[in-house]
């Protein structure tokens, strides 16, 4: 463990623009706090951070995980992973970062691996907690289905999923159609809506019924849903929060 008074490094400006607004470490603490409140974070958790970005949840998690706990994060941006590995003041034996050249129109347009067929390189039942913050808001429907399946495969029985999404239900769908939601969604797909047809992974919203069906098909049991501020309501997070577990 590290002293509480340590000065945490802020990501360089040319990188931080790709991970969304808000104070970097404060947002990380908010995400981990919400995970604690909704799924629990245990000292011995083995955590997989899917789409870890610049590792904003790593320091808050390091305050909660003991010597038995581990963290693995991966991202499609090599710049993000290089910065995490070289800069974050974490135990490299227990906090590991991986880059995979997964294609994404917003983050890695030259990626060589299709997200729709990517296999997580970990055995079945490897993790007890998966965090996917602002991930499914940047994946195609086919990639989302694949990632749900891979999350379920690599979670242990009883393992939990904390994910943020843009879910289209009766209330939010009206806002999206009227283009008053934030972000805006301009084009319809069978599974939901996207913000920019020329950059389809930039912002993705899925029909709530479709998300529920894909969770069930993957073998994940739905636990809870918390609507987000993108709907113009007072809420605990900007995106919607989805909680599930593996039986």
Explain the layout of strands and helices.
Blueprint: H1 13-16, H2 24-38, E1 46-50, H3 58-62, E2 70-75, H4 78-87, E3 95-99, E4 127-132, H5 141-154, E5 155-165, E6 167-168, H6 170-177, E7 187-188, E8 192-194, E9 204-207, H7 208-218, E10 220-226, E11 240-246
Parallel strand pairs: 1-2, 1-4, 2-3, 4-5, 6-9
Antiparallel strand pairs: 5-11, 7-8, 8-9, 10-11
Helix pairs in contact: 5-7
What does this 3D model show about the protein?
The protein is of the alpha/beta class and 247 residues long. The chain has one domain (32-246): Rossmann fold (3-Layer(aba) Sandwich), CATH 3.40.50. It has seven helices and eleven strands. It has helices spanning 13-16, 24-38, 58-62, 78-87, 141-154, 170-177, 208-218; strands spanning 46-50, 70-75, 95-99, 127-132, 155-165, 167-168, 187-188, 192-194, 204-207, 220-226, 240-246. The strands form two sheets. Strands 3-2-1-4-5-11-10 form a seven-stranded mixed β-sheet, sandwiched between helices. A four-stranded mixed β-sheet has the order 6-9-8-7. α3 links the parallel β1 and β2 (70-75). The longest helix is centred in the first third of the chain and has 15 residues, at 24-38. The protein is globular and about 50 Å long.
């Amino acid at each position: 463990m590290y002293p509480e008074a340590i000065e945490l490094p802020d990501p360089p400006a040319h990188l931080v623009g790709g991970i969304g607004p808000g104070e970097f470490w404060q947002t990380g603490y908010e995400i981990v706090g919400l995970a604690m409140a909704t799924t629990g974070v245990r000292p011995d958790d083995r955590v997989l951070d899917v789409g870890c970005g610049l590792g904003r949840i790593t320091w808050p998690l390091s305050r909660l995980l003991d010597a038995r706990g581990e963290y693995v994060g991966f991202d499609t941006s090599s710049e993000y992973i290089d910065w995490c590995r070289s800069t974050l003041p974490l135990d490299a034996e227990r906090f590991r970062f991986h880059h995979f050249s997964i294609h994404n129109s917003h983050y890695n347009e030259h990626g060589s691996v299709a997200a729709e067929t990517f296999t997580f390189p970990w055995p079945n039942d490897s993790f007890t907690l998966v965090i996917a913050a602002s991930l499914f808001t940047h994946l195609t429907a086919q990639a989302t289905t694949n990632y749900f399946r891979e999350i379920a495969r690599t979670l242990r029985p009883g393992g939990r999923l904390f994910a943020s999404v843009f879910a289209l239900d009766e209330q939010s769908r009206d806002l999206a159609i009227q283009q008053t939601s934030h972000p805006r969604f301009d084009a319809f797909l069978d599974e939901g809506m996207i913000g920019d047809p020329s950059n389809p992974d930039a912002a993705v919203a899925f029909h709530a019924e479709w998300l529920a069906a894909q969770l069930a098909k993957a073998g994940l049991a739905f636990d809870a849903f918390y609507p987000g501020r993108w709907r113009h309501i007072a809420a605990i997070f900007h995106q919607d929060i989805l909680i599930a577990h593996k039986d």
